[in-house]
Amino acid sequence: MADEIPSRLEAVETPALIVDLDRLEANLDRAADYAARHGIALRPHVKTHKSSFVASAQLRRGARGLTCATPREAEVMAEECDDVLVAYPPIASPRARRLTALPPSVRLTVALDSEQAATELARAARDARREVGVYVELDLGMHRVGVPHVDAAVALARYVSEIDGLHFDGIAFYPGHIREAMADQDAKLEALEHTLARAMERFYDAGLPPRVVSGGSTPTMWRTHEVPSVTEMRPGTYAFNDRTTVRTGACTTNDCALTVLATVVSTSVAGQAVIDAGSKALGREPMSGPGEGFGQLLEHPDVIVDRMSEEHGVLDLAKSAWRPSVGDVVQVVPNHVCVAVHLHEYVYGLRGGHLERGWPIEARGRARHTA
Ligand SMILES: Cc1ncc(COP(=O)(O)O)c(C=O)c1O
Questions:
Q1: Alpha-carbon gap, residue 63 to 43, rounded angstroms
Q2: What band does 369 get if pLDDT is binned at 50, 70 and 90?
Q3: Going by CA atoms, what residue is nearest to atom 7 of ligand 1?
Q4: Ligand 1: which atom is nearest the Cα of residue 338?
Q5: Which one of 41, 80, 140, 358 is at 20 to 30 Å from 303 when CA atoms are compared?
Q6: Pocket mutation for ligand 1, best pick of 113, 234, 245, 251 (most atoms within 8 Å of C-beta)
Q7: Angle (nearest 5°) at CA 216 between 297 and 204
């Protein structure tokens, strides 16, 4: 496929995903350096890129393993990596069975928060004649999944440690409730460490020392060392970054590696231009405030995608002197890159103005087999 791609951006059929390879590599290097400097294991979440190409670049830079959410991600990543964490409750019977059907050479760990999930996973593990590691998930403020009380978490860890097919390997949490700018995270990070340290004491007292404490997100990633209980971090978005990450201060606009390439298809309504990237190319992901649109032009940051239909994105030109013509090509920085990636099948890698390579987004979708 690599030798079939066009060499110039203008020759790519739009809408299409473009990754600036220098920016991607710098993002991966920066995270790998940070994790190594602070002695924290890096286990990137692949939901952002869903591709073997980026996963192998993360592993080459020393990532300890990979984090997945879906069985499809785990199946694809098991071909790249022999240490896979599934940070999603393995409920609904085919899910646990798809996970335990991964090659036996893959060390599989699953984060869960209920006895029911542990029971289903243990049954699937025994049937597959393998052992699965378990992180007990704690709710440390996001209120999505996770055991809310430490006593119940210790009881779940004990249940896991006593059931055939599983072993208790650590605790996990996701600090998705910390979305403020990096400089404003002090109080929430302190609270996180306080709660974690107390929880750790309880696990030790119960004779169930967690080997791993797995946490971390992109907005908090550069301050992970300020939560010293954490031994493993799982950022995902940092590989590409997006407008939301810029907003938190965890990256700058120049660190946004992925854009959606789009063509201006109409300028017939005054004050606006229409591109061929709508909600099916960008995702309908809002920014935190109203009126901030669904994406921003890389070359004209004063222009946002103000409205969308499925295949139409309406650029608001009110704040810009730029007046595009039909046929012009633009690059849109999405609000939430993970969702934009999931909507496409292929990525083009750009370096120095030339398309250097391309790669498929193999782990998108849900099905076990793709055509
Ligand atoms: C369980 C879990 N871990 C890690 C991540 C990665 O976080 P981020 O997207 O902020 O990098 C996510 C993101 O959704 C997640 O749900």
A1: 6
A2: low
A3: 217
A4: 9
A5: 358
A6: 234
A7: 175
Eight-class DSSP state of 119: H
- Taking the C-alpha atoms of residue 59 and residue 56, their distance in angstroms, rounded to an integer, is 5
Q: What is the pLDDT of residues 72-92, one digit of tens each?
A: 999 999 999 999 999 999 997
Residue to substitute in 174, 213, 241 for testing ligand 1 pocket (most ligand atoms within 8 angstroms of CB): 174
- Which residue owns the Cα nearest ligand 1 atom 16? 174
272: left (phi over 0), alpha (psi -120 to 50) or beta: beta
> How far, in Å, are 22, 52, 65, 105, 358 from residue 81 at the CA level?
24, 10, 7, 10, 21
* Residue where the block lists tokens 């952002």: 48
User: At 249, which amino acid appears?
Assistant: G
53 vs 123: CA distance, rounded Å = 33
Q: How many helices (H) and strands (E) does the chain have?
A: 10, 17
pLDDT digits (tens, 9 = 90+) for 182-224: 999 999 999 999 999 999 999 999 999 999 999 989 999 999 9
CB 334 within 8 A of CB 295: yes
Those residues whose C-beta lies under 8 Å from the C-beta of residue 37, and which sit 6 or more positions away, are none
Length in residues, the chain:
371
